[in-house]
Predict the structure.
Amino acid sequence: MTADQAAPVAAPGGLSRRARRRLSLGGQYGLFIVVVVLIASLANWPQLHTNFANWSVAKTLFPDIITVGLRNTAVYTAVGFGIGLVLGLVIALMRLSPVLPYRWFATGYIEMFRGLPLLLIFIFVGVGVPLAFPGTNIPGGAVGQAGLALGLAAAAYMAETIRAGIEAVPKGQLEAARSLGMSQGRAMRSIILPQAFRIIIPPLTNELVLLCKDSSLVLFLGITLEQRELTKFGRDLAGQQGNTTPIIVAGICYLIITIPLSLLARRLEARQRREQR
């Protein structure tokens, strides 16, 4: 390589491309810092502290926000995830079935429940089911109702995730299992599904994070004080105290659940990418 080839190409203004790129990035960083400092200098910090970070109000929330709000949120999320996973697996297998009515039903279910707002599903479970089937009580009370509503919605998304995982397993795995005398069902249970679930663990973890946040809609089921999740707990206390600090504390409690799950999902995705190389 000659000296002329090794030298950086200078732009018409006298600066090389690398220098201009660094100058542009420095300008963007500088502009960002100026905007942040300007916003911080204009904010009314004493007022924000009084209304959103009032420690005297925040400390009155404990330990109930943990033993009631956080606990119920975790329970609603876990039950909804369990129902959604089982139902989603059934829907995914129906979606892949050679039986045409099964595929029609699975496709209709997925499109309908992915298209409906989750609030309407909660209203349907809390109001529609008792009206449609008088005298019928969903087992588990508020936990059962919340889990069913969350599970019905989650199943539509999980079904597509599970279907994609099954289709990602090489077809030769199923053919090899059948050549060994395994039935279609046994091959699916023993060979295909274990590999598929290993592939889809990261997206399922992300779905768990979404369900945790969606559990805030449980308040539309008419729950009691002991059945309140974090959002309902924070709203009730904010109304009683005349201060929005309880809502901020409830949000922090959501982060206690969602941030570790999000980090876990990213680590699982990174490990999966390394294994595929």
In short: Residues 64-95 form the longest helix (32 residues). Residues 64-276 form a domain with the MetI-like fold fold (CATH 1.10.3720.10). The mean pLDDT is 86.
